Amino acid sequence: MTTQPDRIIIFDTTLRDGEQSPGASLNGEEKLTIARQLARLGVDVIEAGFPYASPGDFEAVQKIAELVGVEGGPTICGLARATRADIEAAAKALKPAAKGRIHTFIATSDIHLEYKLKKTRPEVVAIAEEMVAYAKSFVDDVEFSPEDAGRSDPEFLYEVLTKAIAAGATTINIPDTVGYTTPGEFGAIIRGIKENVPNIDDAIISVHGHNDLGLAVANFLEAVKNGARQLECTINGIGERAGNAALEELVMALHVRRQYFNPFLGRPADSQESLTNIDTRQIYKTSRLVSNLTGMFVQPNKAIVGANAFAHESGIHQDGVLKHKQTYEIMDAQSIGLTDNQIVLGKLSGRHAFASRLKELGFDLSDTELNNAFLKFKTVADKKKEVTDWDLESIVNAEIQQPPEIFRLELVQVSCGDRARPTATVTLRTPTGEELTDAAIGTGPVDAVYKAINRVVNVPNQLIEFSVQSVTAGIDALGEVTIRLRHGDRIFSGHSANTDIIVASAHAYVNALNRLYAFLEKQQEATPEPATATL
C-alpha cells in the first residue's frame, strides 16, 4: 500500500504541456533554465518533455535529468505513449536522474477509442496493463493516465485503473483533456475512483486539466477535497488551447485557504503548516522567466502574478489598504516575491557587488553570461539613476535566453516624425563575418527597422506578434520587447530589453531571426516522424 501524503504534490508540466502552447516552443537551453528555476521554486515533479517526439526533446529531457534531477532535487518525468518505443526513449533519457518517472498514457473515452485509436475496450485494457508493466521494468516510479478520463465511462475507467495499478503504476492521473467537466462533476469522478477501484490505496491520485471553460483550478481544488494528492499544472497556466490549471493560482489558493483545506488532508483545521513544498517567494520570478522565454505575456488582471493583482485604483480601496492591508488584500505581495526594493547598484557598482546581488536573486550564471550581463548592466546604469531588482531580472533574462549569435546587430538608426517618412538604417555582421548595411522606409520606425533587417538577412518570415511592456515605472524605464515570427508552420520568438525601445525591438527581431536561421541550418539533418501528445 502506498502511503498517502498529508500534503499536495506539485507536478509541473510547463516544459511539456505548456510548451505545446502555439508559439511557445523552447530550445534545450531555455528548457534547462526554466527547469532550474522550477527546482528553486520547489516543485516535486518536473515533466521535462516527451523524449520520443524529437531528438531535441530527448536531449533536453536527458540534460535536465542530469543537471536538475540530482540527489535531493525534484523527480524528473518523461511522457510516453503506451508503446514500447516511447517508453524505451523515456527510460533512456531519464537514466541520469536520481529520481526518474515514466508517465505513460492511452485514451479511454469511447469517442477516442472509436475515432482516434480504433480499438476496443478490451484491447485498451490489455495495452495499458502491458505498457505499465514494461515501464515498471525500467523505473520504480510509473504514472499512468487514461486520456480523456473526464468523458470516459466510469465503470470502464475503474477497470483500466485497477489493471494499471496491479501492473505497477504508483500514480494514477485523471485528465480532463478537453476542459469539459465542472467542479462538482470532477470531484465526483475522483470520489467514484476512491470508492470503486479496489487497489486505489496503492497509488497516488493525480489530476490534469485544461481551462477551456475557465474551470481548471476550481476543478482541481474540488479534486483535492475528494482525495487527489497530486496536481499537474503549469506556470501562468500556459498550455494547449486555453491552457492548463495555473500553478501559482493553485498553490496560493491552498496557502491562503489552508485552514479550509486542512481537514480534507487529515490535518487539524488550525494548522499553519504549508500544504505544498513550494517556496511561494519564487512564484513571481518564475512567472516572469516563463513569460519572457516563451514570449507569452501575462494578462494584467491575471490572478496572483498579473500586473494589477496587487494594484488599487479605487479611492475607497486605497483608503482601506492604507489603513490596513487586509481590508482589500488577502495575501501579501511579498509572499510571491514581489518587492518595492530599489537596490543601490549604480554605474559605480563593481562586478562583485553585481554578482552577489544576482546570487541573492537566485540566478546562477556562467562566467560568460555574467560578464555579458554586467556589461549590459553598466550600459543601463549609465542611463538610469536607479537600477531595480526588476531591471536586473530583465537584463539577466535577456542575456540567458540569447540564441546562437549568427547575425549580430552592429548599428540601428532611425529617422521619423509626424511629417517625415520613417526611415531606418541597420548594420549587421553576417555568419561569414562580413558587415552589411541597408536602409528601408516603413509605416513607423519599428517597421522600417524590420524591413531593413530583412533586406540584409533575406530569410522569408511573417511577423505575427509584437509586444512592448515597461519593466518599471518612469521615463527611463527599461522597455521589454517580445516578438514572434512565423516561417511555414513554425513560430520563433525573440526577446530583448533596453531603455530605447527601438533598439530593443531591433535586437528582439534579430534574436528571432537567429533562431529561425539556426533551425533552417539543422533542417537537413534526418529526424524521425514527429510524435504528438496530449492529455
Description:
The chain is an alpha/beta fold and 535 residues long. The chain is 39% helix and 19% strand. The chain is globular. The two termini are 27 Å apart. The mean pLDDT is 88.
Helix and strand layout, with pairings?
Elements lengths: L8 E4 L15 H14 L3 E5 L5 H13 L7 E7 L2 H11 L5 E8 L2 H8 L3 H16 L4 E7 L6 H14 L3 E6 L6 H14 L7 E6 L6 H10 L4 E4 L13 H10 L1 H4 L21 H12 L20 H9 L27 H10 L6 H17 L5 H12 L7 E10 L2 E10 L5 E7 L3 H13 L4 E9 L8 E9 L2 E9 L2 H22 L13
Helix pairs in contact: 1-2, 1-11, 2-3, 5-6, 7-8, 14-15, 16-17
Count of alpha and pi helical runs = 17
Strand order of the largest sheet: 1-2-3-4-5-6-7-8
Poorly predicted runs: none
- Please describe the biggest sheet, giving its number of strands, its sense, and whether it closes into a barrel: 8 strands, parallel, barrel
The radius of gyration is: 25 Å
Query: What is the share of helical residues?
Result: 25-40%
Structural class per helix/strand content? alpha/beta
Q: Please report the total strand number as a whole number.
A: 14
Shape: globular
Provide mean pLDDT, rounded. Answer: 88
Percentage of residues in DSSP E strands:
15-25%
Distance between the termini: 27 Å
